[in-house]
Amino acid sequence: MSHHVRHNSRKTIIGFVTSRSGDKSIKVTIPYKTPHPLYHKVVNRQTVVHVHDEKNETHVGDKVEIMETRPLSRLKRWRIVSVLERAISTEDLAVSENDVAESVPTKVTKE
Length: 111
Hints:
Layout: E1 12-22, E2 25-35, E3 42-52, E4 63-68, E5 78-85, H1 90-93, H2 97-103
Parallel strand pairs: 3-5
Antiparallel strand pairs: 1-2, 1-4, 2-3, 4-5
């Protein structure tokens, strides 16, 4: 009996979620730097890929690790491996009206 061990040689890269397109679909931007061919200045570039998010667990701004996979749709060729860093959500930054009212100093009148 022979046991065939399959080694996973698929590419994994790290990027940032920039858009939630629809159900289970996101766009991930992968930034990289490359020298200009003529002027040799380092130029910031980016690649945008469509990624499959099976559990809808990511939000815009999250730092994610993605892996190359078989074609899942017309554009999607990548899938989420893990969420490395969560983005700060607006719900965490939300401040109630009472908090604002308490922090504003009241005007004192002289009599």
